[in-house]
Amino acid sequence: MRRQGQGAYANLVKELNAEEPEQFRQYHRIDRQSFESILTMVNPLIVKQDTQMRFSISPRERLTVTIRFLATGESFRSLAFQFRMGERTISGIIEETCLALYGTMKGNFLKTPSSVADWLVVSKEFEEKWNYPSCIGAIDGKHIAIQNPNDSGSEFYNYKHFYSVLLLAVVDANYKFIYVDAGAAGRAGDAGLFNASVLKRTLDDGSLNLPPPACVEGIPEALINYHMVGDDAFALTRNMMKPYPHRHMDKPKRIFNYRLSRARRVVENAFGILASRFRVFLTTIKLSPQRVTYLILASCCLHNFMVDNNKHAYTSAGDVESGDHTFLSGAWRADPPLNRLQSCTTDRNPTRSAKQQHQLLTSYFSGAGAVTWQDNMI
């Protein structure tokens, strides 16, 4: 009965609910209206029945505990004192609620485009917002630090010398995740992770339903494949463009690298904003790899929900460009970094068509596709 009359939920959280919108947002990392909308969605999966022996923990309190854990990364012991619950109860609530969040939200807030029309919308937004044509997403990977799992040997020990699980993600022009692959062991590099992913398989067999290669105004000599933009870790293919190595670059290559990095910055910002809002990812998470995967998937759903419903406030920690397109670092860059996956690839022999597309885009960005400010940025 102590839980009902004492603890954070019974006192502080009720006051925040009643009086302080900004304090509510700071405590939960999401605003009150968004919290209520999420609660409505997840409520049927986490509601419990009262018994003759005790009252059940309400869905509202379960969601508050989970959001608070994601927002701060506090230990279960700390949360147990705040909410007057046992540590095992806290642990079970967080796992169950994260699974419920992912289960109820993934269909609307974490779905990969599945039709030509959907991909064309993604590409159009990249061209309008980031001046990059035929782009279907920016791809990158991150290490999420975890405690060494029992009996795992060196499986989760990465090249940066800590234990981790991997998150591979594709992000659209609005900082939304449109594909995530979470939970692989930290020893894998992103070339291996990408090559083993469902995304790579569907790219190869054509089931991703990308639009057919199309003309880009200013590139009259060839059709351009719809493609992702990535860093040096990924192999150069018709569906993946990457920067030139930073040596012996002429001006057109430097311009290409700037234009590609400008489009690719959305995935860095998505990771940075995610960790800035859900700071559990800035800690070493002391849970099993499987349960960390649940946290990642639930948080990606919450991230996309917030981008859809309160983008200006939620993404305010992200990078911005001034009126003259000068890059201004976002607040998330001051946080401890989410470590990137190893920047190497085993594929050093791109196809002739991939090289040709690379060269065509390089010429395009220095010619018909040039923007007025690019010379000042290289």
UniProtKB/TrEMBL annotation:
Alphabetically ordered keywords of this record: Hydrolase, Metal-binding, Nuclease, Nucleus
Needed co-factor(s): a divalent metal cation
InterPro entries reported in the protein's UniProt record: HARBI1-like, HARBI1_dom
Location relative to the cell: Nucleus
Cellular component GO terms held in the UniProt record: nucleus
GO molecular function: hydrolase activity; metal ion binding; nuclease activity
Family: Belongs to the HARBI1 family.
The protein, known as: Uncharacterized protein
Organism: Paramuricea clavata (Red gorgonian)
